[in-house]
Specification:
Elements lengths: L10 E7 L3 H6 L4 H5 L5 E4 L6 E5 L5 E10 L3 E6 L1 E3 L16 E10 L2 E9 L4 H22 L25
Antiparallel strand pairs: 1-8, 2-3, 3-4, 4-5, 4-6, 5-7, 7-8
Length: 171
């Protein structure tokens, strides 16, 4: 996985996944498949303008709207925290629903798909750092699922990442 240089309000991530774009895209447009890699529960309307609300961890609920759904190559949605994700002390700022944008582009590649993730509109470098760590965690889980594996229980739902550190508090 590579994390290219980006503007101060943006997180980018690239990951090769050993599965075709159709298989990877399916994990973004089906409730059960989405929840197999991110979230404990959620509601989704997978169409432009449709809303979503996903309980990412026990305390953190992300919400937004789908902006573009272009199978099997691109999905764009607004992002923010409806509950939880308490920001660090100032100067960190919260990320309310709809205030940032996530764009996922899937490019056919030898032996699979190159996933490009761009999360823009974040309010601070602290928010970028927290979201970069979060997206890396969840894209790793997504890749395991897309490649036919089982990522297992998401230990961040209990507040403990796999390496035993505290789960980051996304701002």
């Amino acid at each position: 996985m590579t994390i290219p240089a980006t503007p101060m309000d943006t997180v980018t991530l690239e990951r090769h996944i050993a599965a075709g774009p159709e298989a990877v895209f399916g994990l973004f447009v089906d409730r059960a498949r989405w929840l197999s890699w991110m979230g404990a529960d959620g509601t989704f309307v997978f169409e432009p303008g449709g809303s979503y609300r996903v309980q990412v961890t026990a305390e953190d609920v992300a919400a937004g709207r789908f902006i573009s759904v272009d199978p099997p190559r691109r999905i764009v949605f607004s992002w923010g925290w409806a509950t939880g994700a308490v920001p660090a002390p100032p100067p960190s700022e919260p990320v309310p629903p709809g205030t940032s944008t996530v764009e996922i582009t899937l490019e056919p590649a030898p032996d699979g798909t190159l996933l490009h993730l761009i999360h823009s509109g974040l309010p601070s470098s602290e928010a970028c750092e927290a979201h970069a760590e979060g997206w890396q965690h969840y894209v790793d889980r997504l890749a395991i699922r897309a490649e036919g594996g089982d990522p297992g229980p998401d230990t961040w739902r209990r507040g403990e990442p796999e390496d035993g550190r505290q789960a980051p508090r996304e701002g």
